[in-house]
Amino acid sequence: MEYQALGQPITCLAGNLVPGYTKAMPVGLLILQLRLPGCSSLKEKRSRLKPLLTRLHKEFNVSVAEYDRHDSWQDAVIACALVSNDNGHTQRALQSVIKWVESSWPDVYLASEQLEIL
Fold first, then answer.
1. Phi/psi at 94 (5° precision)
2. Is the pLDDT reported for residue 3 higher than 80?
3. Tens digit of pLDDT for each residue in 44-91?
């Protein structure tokens, strides 16, 4: 598919829309399924998740959001995304997010994780 911006053709590889740029940039996606034992309301869940999401963004410079299980008090699914110029860096950075969550947030149980490089 060909796109145009300001009259210039844009090469589209792996979702990249940068004029004249042909190298595909890796996009890392990390899905974390979390358990929040002891949460008795959605308000309490939000108060426990918000600091985690903020710290992940600050510590690892990733985009992060709760993306599923919004109505469940004790479950959350969050997604972290990272764009880099190197597959290895993307993989290592998102793996360090997993280790950091497990070691730094003892009141959150990491039920599963899924890491994908797109």
1. -75, -30
2. no
3. 888 888 999 999 999 898 999 988 877 788 888 999 999 888 888 889
Q: Which residues pair with 33 in a beta bridge?
A: 77, 112
C-beta of residue 35 within 8 angstroms of C-beta of residue 88: no
Distance CA 76, CA 45 (A): 9
Q: Quick one: which of 45, 57, 66 has its CA closest to 97?
A: 57
Banded model confidence at residue 2, pLDDT cuts 50, 70, 90: very low
Q: Which residue has the tokens 């600091």?
A: 51
Kindly report the pTM of this predicted structure: 0.74
Phi and psi at residue 25, in whole multiples of 5°?
-95, 130
Maximum Cα interatomic distance, the chain, rounded to a whole number of Å:
57
Q: Tell which residue, 98, 59, 96, has the closest CA to residue 78.
A: 98
Which pair of structure tokens corresponds to residue 44? 């309490």
